[in-house]
Design a protein that fits this description.
The protein is mainly alpha-helical. The protein has helices at 2-22, 24-46, 54-71, 90-93, 95-115, 119-140.
Length: 145
């Protein structure tokens, strides 16, 4: 009986993992959560809440770049509702603008990756990264609460 239970649990976990890998809403929610954590580290540094740390900035920018380069593809037409999505219908109504915003975000994050070498360059380049997030969320993400 223990063996059967173990097999059932293993299969359930495997099926759940496969489902999450193919569910664009689950994928984008996980991606945005990771992006949010990475951006928060940088935002806290920009506000002086935490001290500047180049290694943390570089790791955060790597996370944001990987997310930015994958995000637009995670909004197919069949993912407008369900799964706890906060995506607004405006995404699909203005898909060209939405996709262009991700392209700009990817470009700005790449520029920050290449240009941030110290605290001064961080203060100069990080605001563009933050502005991308806020501008897109303002138009295309439902308000929480």
């Amino acid at each position: 009986m223990k063996r059967l239970t173990t097999v059932v649990i293993a299969l359930a976990c495997g099926i759940g993992a496969v489902w999450a890998d193919t569910d664009p809403i689950a994928q984008r929610r996980a991606l945005m959560k990771n992006d949010g954590m990475a951006a928060k580290k940088m935002f806290d540094m920009s506000k002086g809440i935490t001290p500047f740390d180049l290694a943390t900035v570089q790791a955060s920018l790597k996370t944001l770049y990987e997310g930015a380069s994958k995000s637009a593809a995670l909004f197919p037409d069949d993912s407008k509702t369900g799964g706890g999505t906060a995506a607004l219908p405006a995404i699909w109504q203005n898909k060209a603008d939405f996709d262009a915003r991700f392209a700009k975000f990817t470009k700005d994050v790449a520029a920050a990756q290449a240009g941030i070498v110290d605290e001064a360059s961080f203060k100069k380049l990080a605001p563009a990264v933050f502005q991308n997030c806020g501008a897109c969320h303002e138009l295309y993400k439902a308000k929480s609460g």
